[in-house]
């Protein structure tokens, strides 16, 4: 039996490998996952939430370059390597975009950057402020590959850090929906009768409420925030899983292997978990992939409405909200870039769901 099971898994894997878009989507999702986990390693701005603002260079086009003077702070910040790696650096230094500078005696004179043909303010600072008086080590040309947002923050860094919310909400929401949905669907489908009627009533009531409205209600009850959105989205996505599991169990619970398990005296819990669920997981896996995409879209919608992840936390939906009016102001990339990120990740999950559906279909 195990040999047959392994051969079916290998056959499904071979079919999946032949699907170009499925494999491509898998590697793309892995890439986004790595960027999400190690966002502050890849991001040019590794400050917490990539929130280093420079109002003088706001809304600049992709590829914009400027000289950046970093004025070291006298404050000492104690931060572990783990904290820096996963939560960003607590940056107390001051970054100043400059147009030109010169060192005369023991004074650094510089002119601040100003756009639109304006002249920046001329300022000076004692070079003793810099360790070992090495001024040149603190003046570097900085390139903003995706440009800057309306607050002068590095858009590429914000996209990397924002990927964390969109990516992980899929995992948390699908995990919650699987736990509730598989349990409710299994109980309803296996036992039937009044139990099935009660659970189906709960499912139909939940199903009749608009998803976004239900998420908003749960979010307002739990409060605005990062984890609250994760839980709220998960609590609204279990219905689809429960309906699929219920339907699958109703169709297989009278099959010979289930009857044989009952004849051998196995209890209901063992029959459901060891015999039925492993044989009906294919459609559940497919719908979970679709739920990943749905969770990302719902979170983006909540962030756009202002009740998702709260500032200064980066979120693709919030980035679109902050910059959608720039579409008609000649700088559409500020909203299009995070929009394309959402679209590509959702598309990847949908494509991998289709590939899994084809690979797990035993009829083909």
UniProtKB/TrEMBL annotation:
Transmembrane segments: 20-43, 165-191, 198-220, 226-245, 276-298, 333-356
Coiled-coil regions, chain positions: none
InterPro entries on file: BP-dependent_transpt_permease (IPR050366), MetI-like (IPR000515), MetI-like_sf (IPR035906), OppC_N (IPR025966)
Keyword set includes Cell membrane: yes
A Gene Ontology term for the protein's cellular component: plasma membrane
Bilayer disposition of the protein: Multi-pass membrane protein
SUPFAM superfamilies in the record: MetI-like
Subcellular location: Cell membrane
GO biological process terms, semicolon-separated: transmembrane transport
Domain ABC transmembrane type-1: 163-353
Keyword Chloroplast assigned: no
Keywords annotated in UniProt: Cell membrane, Membrane, Transmembrane, Transmembrane helix, Transport
Pfam family, one: BPD_transp_1
Homology family: Belongs to the binding-protein-dependent transport system permease family.
PANTHER family: D,D-DIPEPTIDE TRANSPORT SYSTEM PERMEASE PROTEIN DDPC-RELATED (PTHR43386:SF1), OLIGOPEPTIDE TRANSPORT SYSTEM PERMEASE PROTEIN APPC (PTHR43386)
Name of the featured protein: Peptide/nickel transport system permease protein
Source organism phylogeny: Bacteria, Pseudomonadati, Bacteroidota, Flavobacteriia, Flavobacteriales
